[in-house]
Every structure is written in structure tokens, then in C-alpha cells.
Amino acid sequence: MDPESLTTEHPLAGITVLDFGQIYNGPYCGHLMAMAGARVIKVENPDGETLRNSHAWSGEGYPFKALNGNKETITLNFKHPEGQRLLKEAIRNVDVLIENFRPGTMAKYGVGSEVLTDINPRLIYAAGTGYGQNGPHADYLAMDITVQAMSGVVSVTGHEGDPPLKSGPAICDMLGGVHLYGAITTALYRREKTGLGAVLDIAMQDAVIPTLCSAIGAFYKSGNNPPRTGNHHQARAIAPYNIYPTNDGHVAIICIREGHWQKLTSAMERPELLEDDQFEDMGKRSQNMERTDAVVQEWTQERSTQEVFATCQEFGVPCSPVQTLSDVLNDPHLLQRGMLKEVTGPDSRPMTLFGTPIQFEDIRPPNPAMPRKLGQDNESVYGELLGLSQQEVAKCRRTGVL
């Protein structure tokens, strides 16, 4: 579609969100809402949320900047009786509330889902947690690594004989945020039909379980916990399936169909492999996985990463270079699609932020922006939502409510 014909009428325009999210899970959901056009108001305690202030995570470093741009920013102490009153008043003018506190945190201070949805029956109260609002594990403290461990992700990651490893990315936090976003948009659709809001309970552990399909398949195949398989297929049922060295890096190659293997033998100029019983079909190649990998590696290690990649693309073999973070942040494909965009920070240094993976053909998403200062929008937001004057906002600051 012609870029000039793209609209800036975003699908969630007109939706107002109070984002009490902290660290990754809730803030990523809020980021997706903002990039879809919702008005997202980030609500922090008067000292700022953990990720803004944690010097161990480099202060207002990259994670905070990436997840909290495109949001207005206010402060509120909901542990303070006056803060509770303000929230109850504001919630009348809000469509969605996002929070990822420990279960029962907001209810403890009289502003939980039951109270707020009674005030505003159209409210969608969206809670993201590690293990959910109920069940034996509900009160367990949850961070990405602990949920990875509890869900089985750690047990299947790593090399056979080596200790288990966590996944490098924060997959549980982010998958939880994605599912929270999906639940909210589903609830908004239902509200259009019924007029009623919803209380949503999205657990990071629930969200990550479907990623274990291959590992669970291997468990049912053998009846035992499968060994860790490194870069191989978790059920060791597909070969080639690995990361292979080149003379200047690494590539990922997978042949999931017989046609892929046939094309790879052509790319490697090794037609005789098609007549070798060791590589007769997927079953044989998997049984002889080490030999299969050795044949592929003999070819890749004599060539550059780009040469292997280009040749595989030419012959129709699934392959990709192993890109470094520097490569990814400068990837022309991601930059052209708008998933990544270079912006200038407050210190005038360039930084690449991510946009949204939710793309409409006819909509131009907003450009990712730097987050605002703590409480920067207190006067405008409280003035608009509650009619508070500048003097009243100043009084709330003095008393610790804002």
C-alpha cells in the first residue's frame, strides 16, 4: 500500500488506560495499547516505579525507555486514603486498568477489581501475575527467571549433561504482556456487544506453557523427561537442525521437509548424499544426527556467513545468519518496517527503540518516543479527569498523595 494513503486513525483511539504496570510485564502491555492508539496514562508511586529508579538496571536505562514512551505520566500513592479517593473518582473516566502487582495488592488498599468495577461496570481490570490470582502458587513471588524455572523452560534449555539454563530473553514477562494485551482487546470487543467490562487474570506461567510443544511431544514419545538438546530439535526428530559455524560467524539451518534436504545437497554440491543410507530420510538423518551435522558443517565452515545465507536463499533452504545485537539494531528490514526506529535521547545520543509488532495494512503506527519525566502530566491529567486545580495538585504533592 502507498505510504501516503496510510491513516493515523488508530484502532484503540478513544480508549483511556491507567497503566500501573511495573518492570516488564504490565508496561509492555501498556506499550502495545499506546502503539495501537489508546491514551495510556502511566501511574507510578511518588518515588517512581522500580525500573525507573533501579540503578542496578542503569536507572532510566534502555528497558524503561523502550517500554514507557508514548505514555502520559502521573504519580499516585494508592496506599494513602486520599490517593484511594482520587483513584475511585478517576476510574469513572477510564476504560482499562493494567496492573501486575502481587495478587491482592490493590485490594488490600481498598482499590481492587471488585471495588473499581462496582464504581465503573464498563471497566476492564487487567491483572498480570506470575502464577495467576488463584491456585496453590498464586502467592509465590514471580520474576521472569523464577517463572521460567517453574514452567519447565529452564529444564529443557541447555546442552545434554550440562546444568539447565534460563532463556536469554525475558520470555515469560513479555509473553505475559502480549497475552494481557490480547485479553484486553478481546474484552473490549465483548464490551461493545454487552456494555460490560471484565476482570482479567493473565498468568505468565500460563502464557509460556504453549512454547513447550516440542518438549512435551518428546516427553510423550519416550515417556520420560527428555534430555536437554542444545541447538538441536527438542525431540531430536529433525536433522539438519542446528547452529553451524562459518569462517566468520554462525548460521542457523533447518531442513524440516525432504525437499529442503534435497535442496541443501544441491546447494552444497553433494548429490551423492541422496544415495547414502545414513541420510535416506528424516528418521535416518535424526538417528545419524552427528554425522548429518558434520556433513553440513564441512560445507559451512569453509564459507562466510553471507555466502552460506545467500546460497541457501537461492536454493530454497531455511537458513539465517546468527545476528548480534548490533546487527539487529541496525537491521535494514526492521528499520524499514518501522519495528525499530532511531530516536534522540535527552542527552542528544541516538538510541534505537522498538515499535509494535501489531501491524495493520492501512494504519501508520505512532513513532516510538522517549518516556516522560516522573509525574510530568499530573496537572493536565488530574485537571482533565478530576477537575483538580494547580493548587489542589500542589497540595497533593505536599501531602505525599502525588
Ordered list of secondary-structure elements with their pairings:
Blueprint lengths: L15 E4 L5 H11 L3 E6 L5 H4 L8 H7 L3 E4 L5 H10 L5 E4 L5 H4 L4 H7 L4 E6 L14 H8 L19 H24 L3 E6 H5 L4 H10 L18 E5 L4 E5 L3 H10 L14 H6 L1 H12 L4 H11 L3 E3 L3 H5 L2 H6 L2 E5 L5 E5 L23 H9 L3 H9 L4
Parallel strand pairs: 1-2, 1-4, 2-3, 4-5, 5-6
Antiparallel strand pairs: 7-8, 8-9, 10-11
Helix pairs in contact: 1-8, 11-14
In words, what does this structure look like?
A 6-stranded parallel beta sheet has the order 3-2-1-4-5-6, sandwiched between helices. Strands 7-8-9 form a 3-stranded antiparallel beta sheet, covered by helices on one side. Strands 10-11 form a two-stranded antiparallel ribbon. Helix 1 (25-35) packs across helix 8 (171-194) and helix 11 (258-267) crosses helix 14. The protein has helices spanning 25-35, 50-53, 62-68, 81-90, 105-108, 113-119, 144-151, 171-194, 204-208, 213-222, 258-267, 282-287, 289-300, 305-315, 325-329, 332-337, 378-386, 390-398; strands at residues 16-19, 39-44, 72-75, 96-99, 124-129, 198-203, 241-245, 250-254, 319-321, 340-344, 350-354. The longest helix has 24 residues, at 171-194. With 402 residues, the chain is an alpha/beta fold. The protein is built from 18 helices and 11 strands.
